[in-house]
Write a structure and sequence with these properties.
Number of helices: 3
Structural class: alpha+beta
Oligomer: single chain
Radius of gyration: 23 Å
Strand content: 15-25%
Shape: flat
């Protein structure tokens, strides 16, 4: 694909924009790499930083907003989906306030028979059980494939 003269492709990396094309500055890649946060900062909590913060929602009864630090869409979507299976949960949704920060906010509203915190704890226990089952089944299948032999590689040599 050809670019018109004077245009530039914009690539967003971290909290800085790098331009390539006619107006790119020499050494801009080195500058971009300086501004990328260290990978461990995306999952290790800092001193005094909490993993989950609960804030009761004052506008709606039996609702809370949970802020998860150092987590992303993977956990947010799993929790939301599992919470919606609970018959006492009326609403569950999450949002990522900003794509550069690894946090998300999970809003949970219940029918009042249980608190949002109780619903979230039950959800987490269910997810741990589900993931444990998945791990055991995966390991079992992996071991079975190893017992069959090394010729099993997706059917390429089996023809």
């Amino acid at each position: 694909m050809e670019r018109a003269p004077g245009t530039a492709d914009r690539i967003s990396r971290g909290d800085m924009r790098v331009e390539s094309g006619d107006r790119a500055q020499p050494g801009s890649r080195a500058i971009a790499e300086e501004n990328v946060p260290n990978r461990f900062e995306l999952f290790l909590l800092g001193d005094g930083e909490k993993k989950i913060i609960e804030e009761p929602d004052t506008r709606v009864q039996s609702a809370s907003v949970f802020t998860f630090n150092k987590e992303d869409h993977t956990l947010g979507n799993m929790l939301r989906e599992r919470l919606l299976r609970n018959p006492h949960v009326h609403f569950s949704g999450y949002k990522v306030p900003h794509p550069l920060f690894s946090t998300f906010e999970l809003r949970v509203q219940t029918d009042g028979s249980i608190t949002p915190r109780q619903a979230l704890l039950a959800c987490c226990k269910d997810l741990v059980n589900d993931l444990g089952y998945l791990g055991r089944e995966f390991t079992k299948e992996w071991e079975l494939r190893k017992m069959v032999g090394d010729n099993v590689d997706g059917g390429a040599n089996g023809l």
